[in-house]
Amino acid sequence: MDLARLVEIQVEFSRRKFPLFWEVRDGRDLALRLEYLTNALAGEVGEAANLVKKVVRSSVYGHGDVKLEDLRKEIEEELTDVFIYLLTAAGLLGMDLEKAYFEKLAKNERRF
After folding, report:
1. E-assigned strands of the chain?
2. pLDDT for 99
């Protein structure tokens, strides 16, 4: 399955569950929706980072007994939440995420 289809599936879900979110009348509404999504995205990244911090604090610095295996499922869930918000934002913008990825990959290939 390609990214365009995943964006489509996520937008269909989101439109069904949160129809008012998709009532975008103007640029202000769009900016507010993007603000919400980027804040939510940052929150999910923060939750994933906090779990990883606990593993590192324990396994690298010896403070606690948390192992990656203990939190792996939770980390995977937070990363999936990040992906969901990313798909939703791409859908809101009408963005071809797959094309943008390959363009950025090519740019990074030249850069690094």
Report:
1. none
2. 96
The confidence score (pLDDT) of residue 6 equals 98
Residue ranges of domains in the chain, CATH in brackets: 3-111 (1.10.287.1080)
pLDDT < 70: residue spans in the chain: none
Residue 57 and residue 102 in contact, taking contact as beta carbons nearer than 8 Å = no
Structure confidence at residue 63 (pLDDT): 85
Please name the residue that has the structure tokens 């948390």: 66
Structure tokens at 85: 């918000």
- Within 10 Å of residue 83's Cβ, how many Cβ atoms? 14
| Number of CB atoms found within 10 A of residue 97's CB | 18
Question: Which whole-number Å values give the CA distances from 97 to 25, 88, 90, in the listed order?
Answer: 23, 11, 6
- Pull the structure tokens for residue 89: 């934002």
Sequence length of the chain is 112
Give the pair of three-digit tokens for residue 15.
Answer: 């439109």
